[in-house]
Structure formats: C-alpha cells, structure tokens
Design a protein that fits this description.
The protein has 72 residues and is of the alpha+beta class. The protein is built from 2 helices and 4 strands, in the order βαββαβ. It binds dioxo(di-mu-sulfide)dimolybdenum (9UX).
Length: 72
C-alpha cells in the first residue's frame, strides 16, 4: 500500500516556489499526492514504495535547488 512521507524543504521563499516543488513531486512516478506549505516549510507526499523511495523524492527536490530532509 501507499506510504506517507513528511519532510522539511529549505529554500522556498515565495508562493511560486511552493507551486514549483509541488509540480516536481506530483510528476514523479509513484507519487500519488503532494502538498507543500510555505509558512511551515513542510511537505507531505503519499507514494507507492514499489515505485519510488524517500531518497528519490528528496533528490528530486534538491535537484531543483531546494534542500529536503525527511521527518519520517
Ligand atoms: Mo519565487 Mo522560488 O520569486 O524558487 S519562485 S523565490
């Protein structure tokens, strides 16, 4: 079944950053749902662990120029 990962995202300074990160996450194969909050720098991703892992998700965020570290 799907898992939910929560992570902090560094480097987001405007609403367009949030849209950018959400778009990146939602385009990843295996990601079913992604929500990012600017005020708290928190993101939540529902994903299929058979298709993608936390490290892959964090790497995709970092490739876009932000910092990502999973909370759980
Ligand atoms: Mo806003 Mo974010 O002008 O990468 S889009 S700072």
């Amino acid at each position: 079944g799907a898992l939910v990962g929560q992570f902090t995202i560094g480097g987001m300074t405007c609403a367009a950053c949030v849209n950018s990160v959400e778009g990146i996450l939602r385009n990843l194969p295996g990601v079913r749902r992604a929500v990012v909050a600017l005020a708290t720098s928190l993101g939540e991703v529902e994903y299929d662990p058979a298709q993608i892992g936390k490290d892959d998700i964090a790497s995709a965020i970092e490739d876009a120029g932000f910092e990502a570290s999973f909370v759980q």
